[in-house]
Amino acid sequence: MTQTEIQPLSKSVTANRENENIQKPVDVANSESKQGNIFTSRPVYTGIAAIAVVAMGEAATETTLVERCLRSARVGGNWNGAFIVLTDAPVDTFQYLHKTHGENVIVLQAKPKDMNEDLVKVMSFKRFKTLIWEYVELVPELDNLKWIAYVDIDIVFGRDLNLFFQDFLETTYHTVSDKEHINDELENTVRSKLYFFPEQNPLKKRQGQMHHGGIIIMHRTESRDCLKLWQAEFDKTAGTKARRDQNGLKAIRERIQDGLETNCKLVSIQKQIPHVVFPESDLMQKMVEHHAKATFIHVTNTNRAKRIPGEIQEEFFRYVLQIPITDTDSALDHLVKKQTHRR
């Protein structure tokens, strides 16, 4: 198996289904393409999955979180496929990334019609999570994409993302789809779906009962109705402090539970180990000591990271980003420093 291909799914899963690659290179010139508010490095992969981040406000210009996320995807996540950055900054801001961290970086600038004073005031950039697919459709080279893993920019990757997608498709996605297919034959109902890990932040009430909004798996067509509902919830609370992603998800979840919403299903990815972890100081030190990693490692930059001493973070991120602790003069040294931003 090459680095750019996922292993074929098991026969029990792939029966009567396409045997698809997660990352598949196409034969195009190794050059750059810049068209207006889109920057695409070449070659672009036509695999079925991509990683996407939303980098807006000071997070886009005053930290190196996007570069840290990308670096970890390449080295820890073994990800050479598409890495999409949706930003309000000029596309040139992130143009350097493909030169230092490989090809297949797609930078999309937010359209003026999607930006307004309210967004800037209350930092509700999270609404752009619901718009990612609309922007991706502006890039013809990504027409083959079926899946996007949206991640917050303060997430880093420690395990092979190809194996995560394989695991997700074999377990969560096909299990839910097969069960729903049986029910659909009886009830004639079809639901749009978004996929989340359960919230595990001990500081948040009802942890495990909420959906963690920092990692979202979205299907190109099957997730659209849910994304539109979520976008509508953002717009209902425009200009207020209630305009938060979790408030919108809660409203949708409650309507589903009450039987008032039948076109959307919020699916929890139950297999959390070894895929997701939310480390504090002690866990960071243990992971380094025992050489342990997870697929998605979320050190919330507006909250958790502020409480973790800088030296612990530096050692941890050197470990995840594979930057030797003895290499203090590395050109990548800036990626391991403690950095936080306000909402």
How would you describe this structure to a colleague?
The chain is of the alpha/beta class and 343 residues long. It is built from 12 helices and 12 strands. It has helices spanning 11-14, 58-61, 65-75, 97-101, 117-122, 132-136, 161-187, 224-236, 245-257, 281-289, 304-307, 310-321; strands at 32-35, 38-41, 49-55, 83-87, 105-109, 147-151, 155-157, 192-198, 211-219, 264-268, 276-277, 296-298. A 9-stranded mixed beta sheet has the order 1-2-5-4-3-6-9-8-10, with helices on both faces. A 3-stranded mixed beta sheet has the order 7-12-11. Mean pLDDT is 76; it is low at 1-19, 25-31 and 184-188.
Secondary-structure topology with pairs:
Blueprint: H1 11-14, E1 32-35, E2 38-41, E3 49-55, H2 58-61, H3 65-75, E4 83-87, H4 97-101, E5 105-109, H5 117-122, H6 132-136, E6 147-151, E7 155-157, H7 161-187, E8 192-198, E9 211-219, H8 224-236, H9 245-257, E10 264-268, E11 276-277, H10 281-289, E12 296-298, H11 304-307, H12 310-321
Parallel strand pairs: 3-4, 3-6, 4-5, 8-10, 11-12
Antiparallel strand pairs: 1-2, 2-5, 6-9, 7-12, 8-9
Which keywords apply here?
343 residues; alpha/beta; nine-stranded mixed β-sheet; 33% helix; globular
Helix coverage percent of residues? 25-40%
- As residue ranges, the low-confidence spans are 1-19, 25-31, 184-188
Q: Termini distance?
A: 42 Å
Summarize the main sheet: 9 strands, mixed
The fraction of residues assigned to DSSP E strands is: 15-25%
Helix-strand sequence = HEEEHHEHEHHEEHEEHHEEHEHH
What spatial order of strands do you see in the largest sheet?
1-2-5-4-3-6-9-8-10
| Total helical elements | 12
Radius of gyration from the CA trace? 20 Å
Mean pLDDT across all residues, rounded? 76
Query: Which structural class is indicated by helix and strand composition?
Result: alpha/beta
Inertia-based shape: globular
Work out the number of β strands: 12
